[in-house]
Amino acid sequence: MHHRARDIRGLTVGFLRATTYLGSNGKKSVWNVDCTACGATVRREATELLKQKKNGVWASCGCQRGATVGAKQSTHQMSRHPGYAVWRGMVSRCTRPTHPAWENYGGRGLRVCESWLRFENFWRDMGPHYRPGLSLERADNEQGYCPQNCRWATPTEQANNRRNSVRVETPEGMITLAQAARIFGVKRSTLAYRLAQGWAAPALFRPAGSNTSTT
pLDDT tens digits, residue range 156-184? Predict the structure, then answer.
């Protein structure tokens, strides 16, 4: 690194984190920067990053431009609608490392599909089925947010889904109850009942109707 270049290694600006000094472009120092939102690596001038940091800019490599611009320049007139708050929460916990729930969402690889980074697209897919009091639920808790994996659910349905995300030891390793149900062809409710009754493998994972001796 040139002795006059400022070391900004580790500097984080929104989704961007400076990692490797590349040299000078003749006037300014240039760095490789990782985008935590999508995993891309891009080049940025140190002065640009420092200016964005000072101004409180939530920067990305460009992958979040649709979401941020959509939020700032929206014409959907729904910024006060409960559905908009649901969308903002979904995007934030999957894309913002500073979000309190990041560790359980974006931090473990859960993502929002590209289309849903714009509220208009999310509401086009989910709005027709929304009713007051419902919340957004993923059918498979190991997968992210997309039309195929999401639905509106009542608080009771959400609670049941969380119970089904309990992890269980299987011949395939430690996996969630939902995953075990798919792999072994047993209903999640059946597995939950058998666990509560103290059943052990292999009987725990036998399809209903077969010899299900618990010994």
Answer: 777 666 655 667 788 777 777 777 888 88
Q: Measure Cα distances from 161 to 94, 169, 189 in Å.
A: 19, 19, 11
DSSP 87-133: HHHHHHHHH-TTSTTGGGTGGGT--B-GGGGSHHHHHHHHGGG--TT
**Tokens matching residue 59:** 């920067």
Distance set, CA 3 to CA 9, 22, 23, 43, 81 (Å): 15, 14, 11, 20, 53
What residue ranges do the domains of the chain occupy? 1-63, 65-163, 166-205
Could you give the percent of the chain with pLDDT greater than 70?
A: 83
Cβ–Cβ under 8 Å, residues 119 and 84: yes
18 touches 9 (CB < 8 A): yes
Instruction: Kindly report, residue by residue over 79-123, the tens digit of the pLDDT.
Output: 778 888 889 889 988 988 888 788 888 888 999 998 898 888 899
Q: What integer is the mean pLDDT of 179-196?
A: 83
Question: Whose structure tokens read 């490797």?
Answer: 20
Identity of the amino acid at 72: K
Q: Is the dihedral of CA 122, 127, 133, 139 positive or negative?
A: negative
Does the pLDDT value for residue 31 go beyond 90? yes
Tell me the CATH number for domain 1-63. Answer: 2.20.25
